[in-house]
Write the C-alpha cells for this entry.
Amino acid sequence: STLSSSSAASDVYKRQYHFFPDREHLLDALAQRHEQALADIAQTFDGVTLDSWTAMQPQALFQFLTRPYTEYLVRNVDVLPVLHHQLIPGNDEGFIRLLMAILSARLPHTPQAQLERHAAVVQSTAAGLLMFAYRMDGANIDFYLKEMPRVLGAYLVHLHALDAALAAGRQDTALSLIHI
C-alpha cells in the first residue's frame, strides 16, 4: 500500500461526507481522530528507558522512533491530505516531550534552551519532509519515509559532536559547529 494515492483519500471523504453537515466538519473529525492516534503513538514510547535511547545508534534510534508513525501513515491514507488542509494544533506536544527526554539524555552538556531548539528542528524536519513529499512528490512518498531516519540520524551525529565540544570546554569549536 502506498500513500501516493490522493484519490484514495478523496474516496474516504466521499464515502463519509454524508455523515457530516459539510466538508469542514468532516475534516475536523478526521483531524481529531488523527490527533488522538498520534498522541497515542507518542505514549507507546513511555516505557522505553533513557538507557535504551542512549544506547541506540542515531539512525537506528530514528528508525525505531519513526516506524510507528510511518506505519500509521501507511494504514491511514487520509492523514496527509487532512494535514495538508488543516494543521492539527497540539499534535506535536507528546513527540516534542519525547524528543526532549531523548536529547537531554544523549546530550548532557547541551544547555536546555539549545535542546529545545534542536527538538524543534527534528520535529519540523520530519513534518516538513512529510509535507514536501505529499505536496511535491506524492508518487514517491515511500522513499521519503525511508530516508527520514537517515536525515534525522545525521543531524543527531552533528549534535553529538556539538555536545562533545561543549563537554571538553571547547566553546569555539561548539560555536563553529552551530554555525556550519
Summary: The CA atoms of residues 123 and 161 lie 20 Å apart. The chain has nine helices and no strands. Residues 86-90 have pLDDT under 50 and may be disordered. The first helix runs from residue 6 to 16.
